[in-house]
Amino acid sequence: MNEFKVLTRESGNAVVMELQGFLDAHTAPDLEKTFSELMSKGKYNIVVNFDALNYISSAGLGVFMAYIDEVRNNHGDIKLANMQQKVFNVFDLLGFPYLYEIYKDQEEALKKFNSR
Amino acid sequence: MRISLRNSLYFVAAGSIAAALLVFDWIRISIGLEDPVLNSIRSLFTIGSFFFLYAALRNFRTKTSAKPLEILRKLVGYGFFSAAIISAWGILLEGKGTSAGKFVPSNVMQLIATTAFAYGIGAFVFILLMTVSDIIYIKPERKVRRRFEVFLGFTVAASLLSVFGGSPFLSTIREIAFVVAVFIAVLHIVSMNWIVFLTRKDKYKSLVHSLVLIVLFGYSYASIGPANLAGGVLGFYSPPMSEFAKIVFLFLTIYFSFAFIITIFHIPTSGVFEKKKRELDSYQNLSKVITNVMDTTEVLNNTVAVVGAVTQANKVWIELRYEGDGSSPDEYRISATHRTSQYELSAFDFDEVRKEVRVNKRVIIHDIEEFGKFGLKNFPSRSLLAVPLIAHEEFIGMLYAAHEMPYAFDEEEISTVSAFADTAAVAIQNSLLFSKSLENERLQHELRIAHEMQLKLLPTSLPSSDKFETDFLSFPAFEVGGDYIDCSQIDPSRYAFVVGDVSGKGTSAAFYMAYMKGVFQSLSASGKSPSEFMMAANEAVGNTLQKNFFITLIYAMLNGETGELSVVRAGHTPGVLISLNGESGEKICRLIRPTGVGLGLEPSADFGRHLGEEKYELKAGDTIVLYTDGITDQRDPAGKEFGEERFYALLKELSAGSATEIKGGIIRALAEFSQGTDAVDDTTVLILKWR
């Protein structure tokens, strides 16, 4: 039931990461693995598409916190896009809009990277 | 030997008859009386006398042990004495008192010597017979016992018939009885069970003893024949005893001749018996191991030692399987070794052997060239046997035995090792399960302690006054949790209330929760403003937390005199203010949601910029509720969330009541909604009611 999936694909100079399902303490390690793979390949321009993500817990939020410093130190960024309202509420409550760029649509986020 | 009153009486009886016979014999010799009828009557008296002697000696059969060699040693002793007596009397009476081919004492001294000899030999014959019966009765079958009794019956019959020495007809019957007795004596060879069970060393000893016994008894038998002097002396005194002794010595000679031969035949097989015995002992050892299942290491070490002892393999070891998860393969670790070492074995890869064992249940490598097939070139043994350890149909590891000789493992040995492996597997499995459950129990205990410790970190009650009242509830979803609730009185009029949630659940969250308490208690006491408090808390937390952890907090400072309330929020679930609309009397529910980022998420400068503070003037009947999202995340059996809307509606409905009544209403509503569905997150609610 609580399945989680990450798909990555390249788009221009960025990588789009699509999340599906439930992101909680059990599935967070999968996301961590994907992030550390991208780090090791030197991919620091990341757009996370939340379109198919139905639930996120505090452990799931922690994953983004864990990598943001490394990404930004390498002149990259993690941009968040296509959140369902419920998921956005969770980010919003925590004050993530102050910390991350959150877009309605992933194309906007990609444009940001490409325009640099 | 026990000398009882009864035994003494038997001795006295035997002695009295002997004395009477001595007197009678003296008279008989003196007057040269030779009457067959009188002789027969006299013989009957000697039988009576010997019977009493036998009865007195019957307790001589001590039966202290059933060890064949001990009995053999005794027999050698008695046999030696009887042979010595025979030869001594042979020398003593040589050339004396003979008349017409028969021995007849010619004076009183010779008569006394004759009498003494008869009773001496008689006694030893009885003792020998009783002692040899001990060895015959080792591992007795009823058949053996009866056969020996029949032999004795015919022996006694032959002896009794010798009383009537003159009659040719009775002589013939006596000779038939004699032949039958000897025939039955020969039959005893089929039941020499005691030889079979001797160890190889004991068999050699038994051979020597038997040889000595053959010589002693053979000599005794030959010497008391009618043609010899000793036979003549005994024949004069008591023909029945003479007959009896003759048969017994013949029996003993035959018996030990056969014992000698049978022992020789059994020497080659004694190795098999010794091995079987060792196996039996080892099985017993192993069952001891199984009852002693506490310690896995002990079970493993005992198993390899037992297999090493039984098979004489020069190397034995066990490896246990550690199941890999999806990504990593199963791992095998050498867990016990006998006459080898992990170090020595680590040079070899037994993967091929394992594969084969899982298919065919065993691997037997007979000689050096076959090792290559299993990728074990240069293995320092020439034979290898590997069998699986299977417990409750689960493959838990392997048992290996290696030998320096080729073809060291025959079918029998393989089945023995397999049997050991099966038994040991169950023991190993049991001990593993036992230690696992022990470990679980220990962890449970630790968690209970942690739970109790954390309960002590929660406030027992929150402050109230005539202006306001408070109540709260807090349950962790597991033994320990990451929710935090606390209060501190800053000065006589001001109170700080806090509700927090550490990201993640369980033990790690509980540690941060405890840390948070320390931060709150030390910072709130300093009388800082809510914003100053939150920034200092972010500083304290940011330096401590792991990157992917954070804490959300809602902090409310209440002036207990004026009802002034200042609230700051660091990423936490918004609080709720329920108040009455003065004009319509309608209940209004407002969210207390000043801006602010979770603690530990950003550095202080940015954190301060994003932090907002909201102020409220509380009016009579206003209710403030601060909580963690565990309550709104609670699900019903169908998986539906309790949700914020339902929670707000509930609070409106309950807000007319006291803080404690509101708390009770929340607990009831939650219980009704969840219908026993476990909470997935910690649940904490703080209720503050302005009077």
From the alpha-carbon coordinates, what is the Rg of chain B to the nearest angstrom?
52 Å
Let me know the average pLDDT of chain B. 86
Task: Report the total helices of chain A.
Answer: 5
CATH homologous superfamily caption of chain A: STAS domain
Largest protein-protein interface: A-B, 15 and 23 residues
CATH architectural type of the largest domain in chain B:
4-Layer Sandwich
Main beta-sheet strand count, sense and barrel state of chain B:
5 strands, antiparallel
Strand content of chain B: 15-25%
The CATH topology name of the largest domain in chain B reads: Phosphatase 2c, domain 1
Sequence of strands across the biggest β-sheet of chain B? 4-3-7-6-5
* Domain unit count of chain A: 1
Q: Indicate the CATH topology of chain A.
A: Transcription Regulator spoIIAA
Radius of gyration of chain A: 13 Å
How would you describe what is shown here?
- The complex is a heterodimer of chains A (116) and B (691).
- Chain A has 116 residues and is an alpha/beta fold.
- Chain A has one domain: Transcription Regulator spoIIAA (2-Layer Sandwich).
- Chain A has 5 helices and 5 strands; from the N terminus they run ββαβαβααβα.
- Chain A has a 5-stranded mixed β-sheet, sandwiched between helices.
- In chain A, α1 runs parallel beside α2.
- The longest helix of chain A has 16 residues, at 58-73.
- The termini of chain A are far apart.
- The mean pLDDT of chain A is 90.
- Chain B has 691 residues and is an alpha+beta fold.
- Chain B has 3 domains: 64-268, no CATH class; 277-436, 2-Layer Sandwich (Beta-Lactamase), CATH 3.30.450; 458-690, Phosphatase 2c, domain 1.
- In chain B, 55% of the residues lie in helices and 16% in strands.
- Chain B contains 22 helices and 17 strands.
- In chain B, the strands form 4 sheets. Chain B has a 5-stranded antiparallel β-sheet. A 5-stranded antiparallel β-sheet of chain B has the order 8-17-16-13-14, covered by helices on one side.
- In chain B, β6 (383-391) and β7 (394-403) form a beta hairpin.
- In chain B, α3 (68-92) runs parallel beside α8 (200-223), α5 (142-161) packs antiparallel against α6 (168-187) and α6 runs parallel beside α10.
- Chain B is elongated, with a radius of gyration of 52 Å.
- At the A-B interface, α2 and α4 of A face loops of B.
